[in-house]
Amino acid sequence: MSWTNSRNAELKERAAKVIPGGMYGHESTALLPADFPQFFRRADGTRLWDADDNEYIDYMCAYGPNLLGYRHAAVDAAARAQMELGDTLTGPSEIMVTLAEVLVGMLGHAEWAMFCKNGTDATSMATVVARAHTGKRKILVGRGVYHGAAPWCSPGPAGILSDDRAHIAYYRDQDPQSLADAMKEHAGDVAAVFATPFRHETFRDQAQPDATFAREARRLCDAEGAMLVLDEVRTSFRLSRDHAWAALGVAPDLSSCGKVIGNGQPISALVGGEHLRKAAGSVFVTGSFWFSAVPMAAAIATLKIVRESDYLERITRTGTLLREGLARQAADHGFALRQTGPVQMPQILFEDDPEMRLGYFWTAAAVRRGIYLHPYHNMFINAALSEADVAATLEATDGAFAALKAQDLKHLPLERPAVRERLERAAALSA
């Protein structure tokens, strides 16, 4: 492909004058190789075009929300039809009731649903519902695990007071003994344990869902009278048509659903069991746009496809093809990859790459060849990705491996000095 970044560079320069830091949050490219575009123009299916009109096969899926493909016809048609009637009104549309019925009907542990906009909204709501129900204060979370950007859970320390986290306690993620120790330390005052279905943090290898950890977390919560909260903001409907631990036989008390339920429309949800209905009804949580009808119409259409199509089998198949193809290519070029976690949410890191110099060069080379991969964040497979797209991806990544092999590997640059700090932090959290 012919690749340029002049328009993107111009926009970054303009943004630096009017947006703090030039960009903020998880979609900032400040830690990424310089070739990664910050700004995009359009998307369709599994394709993304940046501000310079470079075309990519996109493996980030808007950091997760794109499950079925950008601009999915049925989802967009439902959203447009509702827009003709109204979106953000003085009160919710009846479509809110329908969506709650649909979601409760799909999730085995859910008896009610409340809707919001972002993953942070849903996880923060879970803390107050758990505290309202139990009358206890402590929230146990995996150290370094991302649950959102509110003061109680933000990974950035700036502007955060120790008081904001006075009742947040930590355990080593996915470690049953560490969780048991934390529960013992705070016995009698634990309102909730937050867990993710598997480890999926940045700069680190992922894991697979662990039945031992899930069952022990459930047992410990039951013994303590604490609520088990499953944070599925990233994983909803990518691992299962039910909640992610359903196949393990472990049901949470609360779960936060996000990212995908509107296939890109701004909507998330908190769902819970019958025993928490009264507490959920007692807390004051709201937002002027939480009741908007257009995202709810999109969610109903998305969940219909989740129930009735083979989307899950397709993303598993294409994710497997990608993983197997990359493993072969890496071996052919003399490199070793660590591809971890479920194939629907690939994490790709290089062996013997402690400062990620190999990974940074390789993903930047892939971007210049029209494949948007990420050097340190888990990626996502969407249902629009075809086997032909995977073949095109592998053609480009083969070229990226060849370009990497041609380099003097001992002198590859560290693209962003701040990356070393993040790597050290991730290593400390794993210890």
TrEMBL record:
Entries under SUPFAM superfamilies matching the protein: PLP-dependent transferases
InterPro entries with a match to the protein in the record: Aminotrans_3, PyrdxlP-dep_Trfase, PyrdxlP-dep_Trfase_major, PyrdxlP-dep_Trfase_small
Taxonomy, superkingdom: Bacteria
Gene Ontology terms for molecular function: pyridoxal phosphate binding; transaminase activity
Keyword Transferase applies: yes
Keywords: Aminotransferase, Pyridoxal phosphate, Transferase
Pfam families: Aminotran_3
Cofactor annotation: pyridoxal 5'-phosphate
Sequence similarity: Belongs to the class-III pyridoxal-phosphate-dependent aminotransferase family.
Name of the molecule in the record: Aminotransferase class III-fold pyridoxal phosphate-dependent enzyme
UniProt organism field: Ancylobacter mangrovi
